[in-house]
Every structure is written in C-alpha cells, then in structure tokens.
Give the backbone structure.
Amino acid sequence: MNFLNTRTSWGRTILGATAALMVAVTAGCGAATSTSDSNAGNKDVAVGGQSFTTADAETAKFGSDAEAGQFPRTVAHANGTTEIPAKPQRVVVLDTGELDAVLSLGITPVGIPSTEGANSVPSYLADEVKDAKTVGTIQELNLEAIAALNPDLIIGSQLRADKLYSQLNQIAPTVFSIRPGFPWKENFLLAGESLGEETKAVSVLNDYQTKATALNEDVEGDPKISLLRFMPEKIRLYANKSLIGVILADAGFSRPENQNIDDLAAEISAENLADADADWLFYTSYGTPEATGEKAAVEGPLWGQLQAVKDEHAIRVNDDVWFLGLGPTGANQILDDLRGYLVK
C-alpha cells in the first residue's frame, strides 16, 4: 500500500458529533478534577462490538482540509470536529498507540498514561519520555493531572475514554480515533493531521511498507506464523484485527487457519496449547510469566510437543513492542525482529 495520496482520499465532509453517553459536564475546567472510572470507553468499538471491524475504514475518513502544516485547522475525528488554533506544543496522549505515534512524528508528549503490563511505560519508548508526567492509567485517567499540564492538544480514542470526551475537550482541543490496535496506520495519519505533521506521517508509513515488502522478499518459502499471548486468566492467539496481524499481512506472511480470522484474537485453554503450533511461534505475556500462566505452560508437558518448539522456532518476544506498541516505531521494530529470526 502506498500512502502518498492518502490525504486526498480522506473524508472531506466534516462528520457530525458521534459521541454517545458522554459524562455530564459543568462550566469551566472544574468539571475535570477527578479520576475517571474504568468504564469510560465505548463498548461498540471494543472486541465483539458492532463497530469493531470497521474501525480502520471509518478512521481513514477523518482528517483536515488544511494545507500541510498550516494552522488554524479543523480536524474531523471520531467524536466530531475540533478546532486547533496553532501547532500543538504541549500534547497529552491517553494510550500507548498515541504515545508511539507522536514520538514517531518527533514530538515528545508532556503527559502519558501508565499501563498494567510488565512495564508501566513501554520499554522501547521509556527513555524518550523520562520527563513526561503520568496522567493516570490507560483504564483510569486522572483528569485533574491532565488539566494541570496545560496541554494544547489531547489525543485519545473512543475505546478508552469516549464518555470523557466532553470533559477532556474542555481542558484542551481533543482528537479521538475510534480505537487503538489494528487501525494503527489510520490512527497515525490522524495524529499527523492533528499535529500538522501529515507529510511526515505519510513518509513514515511509506518507508514502513517498503521495509515490510523487502522482508517478505528475503524470507525463503511461505512459513506460517503463530502469535501466542499469555494474559491474566486468558490465553490468546492473535488474529488479523491486531497490530501484529496487520504487520504480518503487510509483509505477506501466512497465518494458521485458526488465526486467519477478522477478529482481534481467538482464546484457547492451557490444555489446548497445540492450537498455537505453526512453522514459527512468537509468544509473550501481558504481565509477569508467573501471573499469566506462561511459566507453567512453558515448563509443562505440552510445550515440548509443539513442532515449533522442537524446531527451535518458538521465540519469546517483547510484549511492549509486539502488543503494546501500536504505532510505527513499534511496527518497524517488529519488522526488524522478524528479519532477525526469519531471514537466514
């Protein structure tokens, strides 16, 4: 895919406000002086929701009619339209995908959320945001902490904070994508439009696709690649509607039949680890291996029976990059990882 003409294909019709069930607000920033609850998102765009599978196509319609780099501009996004008077200098991001996106555009945010993974900030980005202030967790944002940073732009998503949009927009101009994850390229272009860095965003994605295509050309044969992630109380095989699923598709790699589905993931039990087998198996944990069941599985009797394990093609990868990156910097690191393992 070439992204050079992406802006011309974006929706030029400014979308009406679509956010539903917003939290009631009062005048002034006084409404934003608390920590949100963990139900602030939008279930319709979550896995299994009626708007999940179309999130990439719908996000591609968003953007701005402004000339590249010019402000003021109006940005159409998942929750309507937002006026951005000048190029943002103090940006707050509400998830790891937005964090990767703005850093990939050369902008260091002043406020970031923490995650519940093994690292509070994705390890591959941590050095770049040492001075950023924490604004709560991805699941529970601290609106008072966001307001205290005096941001001039907030970037988030309906999935995480739909019901908080009105309050956030009182603090600063706020732009929402539909959801993080598999629409990561569309989300990145939307961030570029919001920051006046649309030209750079298109260039970054073109370079990424060139790299993905070159990787496929250098891999011998057509290996099937399986993605296994251990999580507290669940084990997932990641499918096409995920960050890594999109990357594998962009690079032209095959997937096992049980993962070649238009969904985020398929869940399996510890007794069905054989379902994770393939020519190559990449696995990790969201949290510590002891807490997610990874340690028990890898040390158990079923693990050694997998053909990928026997062939030494079962590779533990960095969860922060492969599943929490959700942006072009993480995507490019995944391509580097794949090249290191697959290209002889």
Summary: Residues 4-33 have pLDDT under 50 and may be disordered. Residues 219-342 form a domain with the Rossmann fold fold (CATH 3.40.50.1980). The first strand starts at residue 63 and ends at 64. Residues 90 and 151 are 5 Å apart (CA to CA).
